[in-house]
User: Which sequence fits this backbone?
């Protein structure tokens, strides 16, 4: 990689130990992907959920935080998410383990480094947002695909240590989605139906992701009917990332780099492949567990918006969650507090549901939670969560929020 | 019994050279989606390597999938001595490369052939990421 004078000085250790580690590490990654040089940035998002980073990650962050400021000078604005553990919820989910204290270790270390700790998903509830075309260094895959596709900012997956490195150098290697050539569509799809909810949009992302299955392929999708909402596109995107490792998509006539087919591809587009309602039905029918006892229904991934939490409360009105089933509704701390002020929390609790803040079911010891409670069958409106929890030993079923809540009331998985 | 050495070339990779036994399948790979990291085995029932121990093996798989988690997790696995010896993929994504660089785990991708089609479980491999070379030293017969 070509280095300018400042970057060379960082490698030599003249701008602090943290920057020296960071740029050396970034250079190895940049070389791996044939990056020509670095590109500067302003905004970073660091993924730091406690399960993922492990004890070694905590120790690494604490080691950096113990350096004097001139050795660890920040060179960008960074937020981190997922760390606001809900003490009461965790006493129930994993009794005997103080996850709040464990996560506080991370929060303290990140805070000392100068990272702003927010409890929300960055893409839904922004502290600050990049502009169109701006280079950024976001960590969570849903955030990256959102920034590339919907905002038109430029970002690769910059996973935890990678975005932490960018925090100390103020730059990232220029490869992948920083380059025009990689942002153009590679594959064309046309929906012959209008998805009716976020689960169906997630399923569309899952099907296309399974089909293409490469970080370097960019699907362009033509939809009919009214334009999808940002939340619909969020579920589409995070499932493309989850099932296919994609970091960018285009919706023809809607997303900012796809005003038409030719613009999306930068050349004549291929004939689109049709995605049909019957394929969608087959996708949902492909999960086992219909008619089985429902053990747990976590509604998260992403955490629910205020209007979604209210929707769940209304579905529960006059009903009660079955005693064999645990209904978990995840939302950011600020929205949970709003729900308390609105009386929505009380409605959910009266019906036997649990409103949980500040983390995500799949990202927080889901395997250990399953073993602790002896849970097997899981139902969620998040098609991404279903994908992940299968690997944690659950038998998951993705379905709409309405079906999840109805099943939680019935105590078994409804079709 | 064959004993000839076959060599495959990939893109220049990450980490030190190693020698070890392959654990191979045509499936994709994610540390979060596919592994029980406490037991060191594949835990996704639909994965071809379900139930297999990956500790100390050279994993040979198709594409990196899923999200951010692998970048932190690979280093934790290495430090707990519950990691594969090396990882060879047809196609990496940035997360897996960032994780391998953070963990100093030998890692390569972009081979001149479908690496999952030519390497079999049990093959003894010499992996030299800096040279971009994988040698099958003792093919399973």
Assistant:
């Amino acid at each position: 990689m070509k280095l300018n004078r400042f970057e060379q000085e960082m490698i030599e250790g003249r701008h602090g130990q943290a920057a020296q580690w960071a740029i050396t590490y970034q250079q190895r990654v940049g070389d791996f992907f044939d990056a020509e040089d670095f590109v500067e940035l302003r905004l970073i998002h660091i993924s730091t959920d406690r399960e993922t980073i492990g004890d070694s990650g905590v120790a690494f962050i604490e080691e950096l935080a113990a350096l004097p400021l001139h050795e660890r000078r920040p060179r960008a604005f960074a937020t981190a998410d997922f760390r606001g553990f809900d003490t009461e919820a965790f006493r129930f989910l994993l009794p005997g383990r103080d996850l709040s204290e464990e996560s506080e270790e991370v929060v303290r270390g990140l805070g000392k480094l100068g990272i702003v700790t927010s409890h929300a998903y960055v893409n839904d509830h922004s502290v600050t947002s990049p502009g169109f075309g701006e280079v950024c260094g976001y960590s969570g895959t849903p955030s990256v695909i959102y920034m590339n596709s919907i905002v038109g900012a430029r970002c690769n997956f910059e996973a935890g240590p990678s975005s932490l490195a960018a925090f100390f150098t103020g730059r990232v290697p220029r490869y992948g989605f920083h380059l025009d050539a990689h942002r153009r569509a590679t594959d064309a799809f046309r929906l012959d139906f209008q998805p009716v909810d976020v689960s169906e949009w997630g399923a569309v992302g899952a099907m296309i992701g399974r089909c293409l299955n490469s970080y370097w392929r960019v699907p362009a999708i033509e939809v009919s009917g009214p334009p999808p909402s940002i939340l619909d596109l969020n579920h589409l995107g995070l499932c493309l990332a989850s099932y296919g490792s994609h970091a960018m998509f285009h919706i023809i006539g809607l997303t900012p780099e796809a005003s038409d087919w030719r613009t999306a591809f930068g050349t004549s587009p291929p004939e689109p492949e049709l995605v049909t309602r019957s394929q969608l039905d087959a996708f949902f029918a492909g999960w086992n567990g219909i008619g089985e006892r429902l053990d747990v229904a976590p509604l998260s991934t992403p955490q629910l918006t205020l209007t979604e939490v209210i929707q769940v409360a209304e579905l529960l009105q006059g009903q009660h969650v079955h005693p064999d089933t645990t209904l978990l509704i995840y939302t950011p701390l600020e929205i949970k507090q709003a729900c308390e002020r609105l009386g929505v929390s009380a409605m959910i609790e009266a019906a036997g549901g649990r409103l949980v803040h500040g983390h995500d079911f799949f990202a927080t010891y889901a395997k250990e939670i399953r073993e602790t409670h002896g849970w097997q069958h899981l139902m969620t409106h998040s098609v991404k969560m279903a994908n992940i929890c299968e690997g944690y030993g659950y038998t998951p079923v993705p379905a709409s929020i309405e079906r999840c809540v109805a099943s939680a009331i019935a105590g078994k998985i409804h079709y | 019994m064959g004993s000839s050495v076959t060599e495959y070339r990939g893109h220049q990779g990450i980490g030190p050279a190693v020698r070890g036994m392959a654990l191979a399948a045509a499936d994709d790979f994610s540390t979060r989606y596919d592994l029980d990291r406490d037991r060191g085995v594949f835990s996704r029932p639909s994965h071809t390597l379900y139930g297999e121990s990956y500790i100390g093996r050279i994993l040979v798989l198709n594409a990196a999938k899923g999200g951010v988690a692998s970048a932190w997790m690979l280093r934790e696995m290495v430090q707990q001595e519950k990691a594969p010896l090396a990882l060879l993929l047809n196609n990496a994504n940035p997360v897996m490369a960032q994780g391998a660089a953070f963990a100093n785990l030998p890692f390569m991708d972009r081979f001149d052939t479908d690496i999952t089609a030519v390497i079999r479980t049990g093959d003894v491999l010499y992996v030299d990421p800096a040279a971009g070379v994988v040698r099958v030293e003792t093919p399973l017969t």
